[in-house]
Amino acid sequence: MKLASTIQLVSSLASTSDPGVAAYDALRRLTTHSPVAVTGTLQPRKAPKKPSEHASGLITSAETRVESIVPLNAFPEDIIMAPETVFQADQRHLQIRNEPSLREALRFRSKAAHIIRDELCDKHDFIEIETPLLFKSTPEGAREFLVPTRVPGMAYALPQSPQQYKQIMMASGIPRYMQIAKCFRDEDLRADRQPEFTQVDLEMAFASGEDVMQIVESVVKRLSVEMLHQKDMPKAFPRMSYNEAMSKYGSDKPDLRLGSEIHRVEYMLPVDLIGKIGPLASPAVDVMKIPISEDPSATMVFVNTFMDSPEAQPFINNPHGQPGIFVIDSRKPLQGMQVFGFEAAEQVEELLSLEDGDLVVLQARPNAPFAGGSTPIGNLRLALHKAAVAQGLLSAPTGFAFTWITEFPLFSPTTDAEPGQGGSAGLASTHHPFTSPKTSADVDLLLTDPLSVVADHYDLVVNGVELGGGSRRIHKADMQKYVLQEILKISDERLGDFAHLLEALRAGCPPHAGLALGFDRLVAVMLGKESVRDVIAFPKTGRGEDAMVKSPTRMTEVQLETYHLRLRDSK
Fold this sequence. Notes:
This protein is an alpha+beta fold. It has helices at residues 19-29, 92-98, 100-124, 163-170, 209-228, 242-249, 271-277, 296-307, 313-316, 341-352, 376-390, 440-448, 477-487, 492-495, 499-506, 519-526, 557-562, and strands at residues 9-10, 36-44, 62-71, 127-128, 146-148, 155-157, 176-184, 196-205, 239-241, 263-264, 284-291, 324-327, 358-365, 402-406, 411-413, 427-429, 457-462, 465-472, 512-518. The strands form 5 sheets. Strands 4-7-8-19-18-17-14-9 form an 8-stranded mixed beta sheet, with helices on both faces. Strands 10-11-13-12 form a 4-stranded antiparallel beta sheet, with helices on one face. A 3-stranded mixed beta sheet has the order 1-3-2.
């Protein structure tokens, strides 16, 4: 019989010989939150007419008549456990114990994993396969964690993902693979990143990206219906190219719930206005509106408050020019857009359907193909909406707006912050170096203009969060070697680190495609959590540390000697 976690205990005090008396005395001596073993008889109970606000989880139709109570441990008096008590990260066990939302998040996570396995394995014939955690160092694009061995100079690397193993399985005759996999990346941390994280990993042989997207949609829809009771899921998630997302929303993971589409307008504007926007010669100029308030005065107060805040500093210090911000006010000439001139003001008003109190933003940027994950006006769009919601001027967005972002550039220029695959060409794979060009025309462009090559790469995005990404893979060894050696210009030594994959592809590997969903992010978004730490049992802090167990720890001299390591003095 499955019971709730809380049930009322009753005892008889009819006589001193009644076992309930001893049980009652034992109960009185216990401190709250102490574990006990109770022996008794379950019996019917008349439920109260008005359950208290604290009665959630109680069994109201039954009670236990106590015969004996045996203390199993004691809760110490120096720990104050009350609903309002806030425990720090170094007391994670007490955080989980005292915060029902944390326990419910872990239960939600467990059920979500069960549904994912059922949907993929039972309904779509995937095989769940565990891949090794002790891998080897290969330049996929993120920094790795190394695991030294007792053999001098030899180390494993923890996997950034099971990417290469799952492609090898496609060459091994496995038609459909899945795994809820642990992955590790030694990268800068944010609210949605952890040095170790979990992803729903899948790969399909003889499949295209369309096949993968359909499977993933079925998983996400089932989770939404069964876990969140969503009844209005779309038949298919909308699609949007990378260039469209960047031009309309200034982000490759747009939050479609916010509206405020961005439009390119430099062709409308007077030359002198473009010159005032920033120092760029012949820039692209974007415009957007945010309907902050119907009262222009309230909108102006909001603008001044925001621009004086720390959140505005990145936009004020933009080397390509500060944003031009205007408040629509019908009491003023050209509604407050005098600097636009009559013709441009009229065109912008018609383009954006402007009304009193609307906030209009102009921003210049280099007139070049999009690169990276966002533009300054896209970041400003998010910051202004967040500030307006915080001040009660706009309602917080609700619901879930899923979309697929497709047709990413296959390669991007490398930066110091993102070292990529470490080749000498100044390029890095936008996704990873195993992603296939989208069309035969893109294959031809590899020879002449790699930065113009479009990838057969797709990201699933919801509410401004990238839930996961995938691609059709390069399945021929000569093409894979060409990308690594001739396009990225990885050294011969590093190319040798991929010999296992090239050999697998050479052995008649079929076409294949796959995707990885960030499981931590998925659960956090479904539960409306700001950080993935709220849905992980033992998360790392912003410094990558486990505050409770105090990891990582400094290596001892004995450990250094065992693994043939020596610390260098930092300079």
